[in-house]
């Protein structure tokens, strides 16, 4: 089930009605668990079994780990959990990819091998819930969290429907304790939750699906060289589309959970106003980047073993991060580019300390204090635009179905193709440039700010106007049911 | 979790104003005489595609573009044939993705009528007429229970609200009317007058009463066809390219025939100057006749039958609802008496 569907409206009303009915807390948690399974199963019912399997194995492995003092046994239980979770992920997500590359490798040695084409369907959200349950068993193994005694609370942690299929990837310590005591939203929390759901749906349905997706779809699907303007329009459109699609989902998830009285971490913090790539990854898919940091980068040694090892760790982490997004070498290149940017940024920062003008404190100052000197502001804007430009290059690999398309688009973007075709109509072009200019402006203005505080101090008429505009455009868009891009990851 | 101060009241005002604006919007379009229109989205197509696979009885399926939707009156067809046809045609699309899909569907038996508008039928694989139909086919094969349930709710709302007309009154449809000059050499879907046609819950399209009485609106729609015809004419394949395009068509038709499916091509009426334009871009002997011969399939061309070519198209490309009735009855008669069509037993 997706948030942007009419059936979700009916489902959510029923869930809210049951959650606020005078039942004991345990019954309410059972209701939420059953609702979460229904939420997942109405996409493809058989895959609910994978979710159950993951839940059962991780719950019992963690319990065994908690009761065991011998390190070798504890490690064994962890390995069982890792093998099951990563094994399912490897089979369902990377099975075809691994087989294709194996065949390619054999053909490199002159061995012709043509296996039957596997018909594997990717279970929606498997990457998200796998990472969420892995964080639990690893944390229990590290003794960072104690093994959960209540199967109901653990199952709800794995399955909680607002964030089940596309995150944010919640940590056990952030969610399980919330299930221990009755949670109901206050009136203000409930209405703010609805406000966030409206904002998230506006981003997804109106901006991503209606205004930007048509241009991105045209540009990334034509099998011919394009004019530079068309190539840039398509790439910028995808840049906005993926942000609004994914951040829209996260915002809906946070809003939905809040309506039920639960808090979920924020996942995006105006990433297109980032200055540099360390800053970008502190703002983009935060729950994923912090997961990679805590469960991959730091265990690899992080930055504690000298610069060369640090760069290798960074690169390895980002390459795997790329592969997490999809079973294709284009995603690996996407991750590799981000890794390269991070390494170069670190190299550059190591030799030459960041100019005082773009130290974090100065950034906050310049945004908050209009009187800051112009040259500082211009350098910051240059930093934002340069980062945004480089991010757009990476999106070419992320969205392209193959390297041929990516190469053709990059060549067109940099004017290397003299006779490209014009494909994007003026109407779509205007939409893309107006939306992207607005998006960049909003990210810049909100760079160091908090939405709650901004709305608290804004005149009431402006809040009414903004939410009315979003609600009206949502109704006008008349579009429901398109999947979120990150469902496929 | 922190919440903005005073947000609740602002949100309530926003909901109230939105409800009021929506009410005014609905009343306005009702006052303009706009009829209830059902969406022609992926789910609507998938809903009818699913009927092909429902049950084991043979079905009559129509695929093609808008001429099949306007010119074949479903109720008349059902009266004449005794079986309700399943309308899978879609405006401005090629029927080929649907043909290949049905050919690969072993559950489908019965009769298939394929509407032919050559400019759309022979559109290249990456062009909109093909990709739009491919989207529908793919959507059907991945149609989830949640999407089916949403479709049910959506249909209920569409049945009661005039303003839920995705083709004419959605955000993108309204933005497409913005006075922005077209980009030279780039295809843009032309903008139709808002109330030129209507679609009912069975996917029957009809020219509106307003269009039938409004010469200016007819001319406006003629301009759209002229624009599309010009684009279609430039893409006409020939020689080996044409044969290459027909090989998968024949392959699919052979698969269908092997299962006992009766397949017929249908060329629906078209008026001047578009008929002359189509003959020039797709000469009958090079396309229609060659296709029938190459695929070893029978066809009904309106120009061959006085009972089919006597009708005029008010906007050049589609029959008036009143003419679709005798046209359909005559088409069924020709299929039965001259083409040996045996109506599938239910």
Secondary structure layout:
The complex is a heterodimer of chains A (about 500) and B (about 350).
Chain A: H1 6-19, H2 25-41, H3 48-67, H4 71-108, H5 126-141, H6 151-159, H7 172-175, H8 187-221, H9 228-259, H10 277-281, H11 286-297, H12 307-325, H13 329-351, H14 360-368, H15 374-399, H16 403-413, H17 426-445, H18 451-457, H19 460-477
Helix pairs in contact in A: 1-2, 2-6, 3-4, 3-5, 3-6, 4-5, 8-9, 8-17, 8-19, 9-15, 9-16, 9-17, 11-12, 12-13, 13-15, 15-16
Chain B: H1 7-31, H2 42-53, E1 59-63, H3 66-71, H4 74-81, E2 86-87, H5 96-103, E3 110-115, H6 118-121, H7 128-141, H8 145-160, H9 166-169, H10 171-175, E4 197-199, E5 205-207, H11 209-213, H12 215-234, H13 239-258, E6 262-267, H14 274-281, H15 288-295, E7 298-301, H16 306-309, H17 321-337
Parallel strand pairs in B: 1-2, 1-3, 3-6, 6-7
Antiparallel strand pairs in B: 4-5
Structural write-up:
The complex is a heterodimer of chains A (about 500) and B (about 350). Chain A is mainly alpha-helical and about 500 residues long. Helices cover about 70% and strands about 0% of the residues of chain A. Chain A has helices at about 5-20, 25-40, 50-65, 70-110, 125-140, 150-160, 170-175, 185-220, 230-260, 275-280, 285-295, 305-325, 330-350, 360-370, 375-400, 405-415, 425-445, 450-455, 460-475. The longest helix of chain A has about 40 residues, at about 70-110. Chain A is globular. Mean pLDDT of chain A is about 90; it is low at about 355-370. Chain B contains 17 helices and seven strands. In chain B, the strands form two sheets. A five-stranded parallel beta sheet of chain B has the order 2-1-3-6-7, with helices on both faces. A two-stranded antiparallel sheet of chain B has the order 4-5. In chain B, helix 4 (about 75-80) runs parallel beside helix 17 (about 320-335), helix 5 packs parallel to helix 7 (about 130-140) and helix 12 (about 215-235) runs parallel beside helix 14 (about 275-280). Chain B starts with 6 loop residues before the first helix and ends in a 9-residue tail after the last helix. The chains are: A mainly alpha (about 500), B alpha/beta (about 350). At the A-B interface, helix 1, helix 8, helix 17, helix 18 and helix 19 of A face helix 1, helix 8 and helix 10 of B.
């Amino acid at each position: 089930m997706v948030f942007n569907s009419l059936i979700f409206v009916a489902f959510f009303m029923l869930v809210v009605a049951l959650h606020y009915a005078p039942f004991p807390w345990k019954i309410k948690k059972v209701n939420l668990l059953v609702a979460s399974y229904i939420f997942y199963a109405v996409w493809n019912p058989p895959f609910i079994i994978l979710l159950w399997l993951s839940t059962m194995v991780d719950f019992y492995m963690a319990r065994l780990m908690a009761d065991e003092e011998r390190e070798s046994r504890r490690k064994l239980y962890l390995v069982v959990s890792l093998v099951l979770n990563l094994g399912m992920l490897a089979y369902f997500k990377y099975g075809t990819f691994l087989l294709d590359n194996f065949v390619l490798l054999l053909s490199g040695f002159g061995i012709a091998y043509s296996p039957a084409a596997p018909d594997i369907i990717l279970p929606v959200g498997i990457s998200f819930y796998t990472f969420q349950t892995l964080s639990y068993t690893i944390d229990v193994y590290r003794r960072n969290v104690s093994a959960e005694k209540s199967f109901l609370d653990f199952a709800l942690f794995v399955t909680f429907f607002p964030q089940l299929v596309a995150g944010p990837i919640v940590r056990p310590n952030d969610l399980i304790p919330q299930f221990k005591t009755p949670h109901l939203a206050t009136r203000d929390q409930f209405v703010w939750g609805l406000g966030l759901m409206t904002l998230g749906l506006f981003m997804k349905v109106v901006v991503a699906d209606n205004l930007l997706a048509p241009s991105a779809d045209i540009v990334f699907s034509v099998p011919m060289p394009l004019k530079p303007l068309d190539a840039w329009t398509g790439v910028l459109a995808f840049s906005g589309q993926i942000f609004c699609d994914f951040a829209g989902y996260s915002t809906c998830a946070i809003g939905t959970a809040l309506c039920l009285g639960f808090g979920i971490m924020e996942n995006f913090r105006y990433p297109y106003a980032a200055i540099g790539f360390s800053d970008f990854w502190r703002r983009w898919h935060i729950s994923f980047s912090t997961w990679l940091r805590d469960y991959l980068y730091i265990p690899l040694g992080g930055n504690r073993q000298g610069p060369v090892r640090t760069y290798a760790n960074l690169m390895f982490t980002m390459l795997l991060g790329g592969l997490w997004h999809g079973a294709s070498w284009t995603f690996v290149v996407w991750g590799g580019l981000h890794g390269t940017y991070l390494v170069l940024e670190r190299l550059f920062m190591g030799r030459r300390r960041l100019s005082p003008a773009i130290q974090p404190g100065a950034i906050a100052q310049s945004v908050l204090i209009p009187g800051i000197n112009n040259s500082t502001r211009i350098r910051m804007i240059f930093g934002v635009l340069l980062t945004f430009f480089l991010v757009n290059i990476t999106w070419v690999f992320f969205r392209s179905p193959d390297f041929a398309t990516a190469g053709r688009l990059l060549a067109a973007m940099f004017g290397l193709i003299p006779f490209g075709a014009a494909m994007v109509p003026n109407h779509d072009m205007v939409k893309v440039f107006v939306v992207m200019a607005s998006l960049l402006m909003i990210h810049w203005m909100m760079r160091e700010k908090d939405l709650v505080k901004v709305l608290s101090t804004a005149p009431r008429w402006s809040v009414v106007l903004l939410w009315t505009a979003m609600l009206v455009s949502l109704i006008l868009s008349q579009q429901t049911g398109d999947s979120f891009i990150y469902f496929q990851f | 979790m922190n919440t903005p101060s005073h947000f609740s009241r602002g949100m309530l005002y926003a909901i109230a104003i939105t409800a009021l604006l929506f009410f005014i919007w609905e009343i306005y379009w009702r006052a303009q005489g706009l009829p209830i229109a059902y969406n022609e989205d992926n789910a609507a197509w998938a809903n009818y595609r699913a009927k092909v696979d429902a049950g084991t009885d043979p079905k009559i399926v129509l695929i093609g573009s808008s001429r099949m939707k306007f010119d074949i009156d479903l109720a008349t067809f059902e009266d004449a044939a005794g079986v309700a046809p399943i309308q899978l045609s879609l405006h401005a699309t090629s029927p080929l993705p649907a043909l290949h899909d049905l050919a690969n569907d072993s559950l489908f038996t019965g009769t298939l009528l394929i509407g032919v508008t050559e400019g759309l039928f022979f559109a290249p694989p990456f062009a909109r007429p093909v990709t739009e139909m491919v989207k529908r086919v793919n959507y059907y094969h991945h149609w989830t229970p949640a999407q089916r349930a949403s479709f049910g709710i959506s249909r209920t709302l569409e049945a009661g609200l005039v303003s839920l007309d995705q083709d004419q009154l959605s955000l993108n449809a309204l933005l497409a009317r913005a006075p922005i000059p077209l980009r030279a050499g780039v295809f843009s879907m032309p903008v139709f007058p808002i109330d030129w046609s209507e679609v009912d819950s069975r996917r029957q399209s009809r020219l509106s009463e307003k269009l039938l009485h409004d010469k200016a609106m007819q001319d406006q729609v003629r301009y759209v066809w002229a624009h599309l015809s010009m684009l279609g004419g430039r893409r006409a394949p020939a020689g080996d390219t044409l044969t290459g395009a027909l090989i998968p068509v024949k392959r699919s038709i052979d698969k269908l025939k092997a299962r006992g499916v009766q397949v017929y091509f249908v060329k629906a009426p078209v008026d001047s100057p578009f008929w002359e334009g189509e003959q020039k871009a797709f000469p009958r002997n090079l396309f229609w006749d060659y296709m029938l011969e190459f695929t070893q399939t029978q066809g009904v061309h309106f120009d061959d039958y006085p009972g089919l070519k006597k009708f005029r198209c008010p906007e050049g490309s589609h029959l008036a609802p009143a003419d679709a009735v005798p046209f359909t009855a005559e088409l069924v008669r020709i299929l039965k008496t001259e083409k040996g069509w045996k109506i599938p037993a239910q």
